[in-house]
Each structure stands twice: as C-alpha cells, then as structure tokens.
Design a protein that fits this description.
transferase, 49% helix, two-stranded antiparallel sheet, P-loop_NTPase, 7 strands, ATP hydrolysis activity, 5-stranded parallel sheet, 7 helices, rRNA processing
C-alpha cells in the first residue's frame, strides 16, 4: 500500500469483496475514526437511481457504471473517501490509493448469506466466486500491485484487526502528505 504522488490531502480507499465478507463494517468504523466519507455504492445506486432497472434473477439493481462514475467523479478527486462495493473493475484506477479485498472462508460465507435470505442461485453464485477468488483476480488486473491488499474476514477478531489496520494506514497516509 504505497501512496502515489497526488494532490489529494486525504486518501481514497476501495473496500471490496464478495457479498457477506464484511465490507460495510470494515468501511464504516475507519471512516468514522478518521473523518473520511463512507460511500456504500449499493445505497448510492438506490438513492440516486444510478441503475438500469431491477434484475429478478439476481434480486438486485442493474448498476449503471457510467452513472455511478459520473456521480462520484468530483468527490473522488477531492479525496477522503472509503468506497464499499462488491465490484471494482469499472472504477478509474487513479481514484484509489489503497484497494482492500476481503476474503471469507466459503462455509462461513454460505452461512452468512443464508441468514440474509439469499436465493439458492444467488447464494451459490457468490460462494463460487469466493472459492475461485474471482474478485481478487479482478482487483489484481485493475489496480497496481502496491495498492492491493487481501485481508481475511472470517471472524469478529479478523474484522476488528482489519478495521485497526485500515485506520492506522489512513492515519499514516495523512501524516505523510
């Protein structure tokens, strides 16, 4: 996790991972501790209608990537944001100073998504994506290696450690500016 020579005074961080890996929890706490803005893309899409309708099979909105990027452009250029989303490859690389990929054991993930009431097809799809590390590969293809970190997110202790690691990284980044 190396800082680019950029003009932002505060970093932008992407926290990504398969649904159920703890993205929102891992994003919210460091944002509050460091006064960064937490942007949950799923919530933003709903609030601002940045979608192309509803997908019944996936039981989710069809994200309009161009509308999302247009909506975020100015705020990302300013810096000071933790973005939380289960995708990554449509965001401009220049937006992020650090990209965190949360990973969860597939048995634990299955149980978490089952408790959320995911349909079997959606549940299976997400667990398979986690098993094959699809998101980690997408991140590695989309972002410079020195910006990417994969963190285990199986237990409350893992999540607490991840929050502390991210909070420390943000504070250290801000000191170096």
């Amino acid at each position: 996790m190396v800082k680019d020579s950029i003009k932002r005074r505060k970093p932008n961080i992407l926290v990504t991972g398969t649904p159920g890996t703890g993205k929102t929890t891992t994003s919210t706490a460091p944002a509050e501790a460091t006064q960064l803005n937490h942007i949950n893309i799923g919530d933003l899409v709903k609030e601002k209608n940045l979608h192309d309708g509803w997908d019944d099979e996936l039981d989710s909105y069809i994200l309009n990537e161009d509308l999302v990027c247009d909506e975020l452009e100015d705020v990302m250029d300013e810096g000071g944001n933790i973005v939380d989303y289960h995708g990554c490859d449509f965001f401009p690389e220049r937006w992020f100073d650090c990209v965190v990929v949360l990973q969860t054991d597939n048995t634990i993930l299955y149980d978490r998504l089952s408790r959320r009431g995911y349909k079997e097809s959606k549940l299976s799809n997400n667990v398979e994506r986690e098993i094959f590390q699809v998101l980690l590969e997408e991140v590695k293809e989309s972002y410079a290696e020195d910006k990417v970190v994969a963190l285990k997110s199986d237990t409350i202790e893992d999540i607490s450690r991840n929050v502390a690691t991210l909070t420390d990284w943000i504070r250290n980044w801000s000191i170096q500016v």
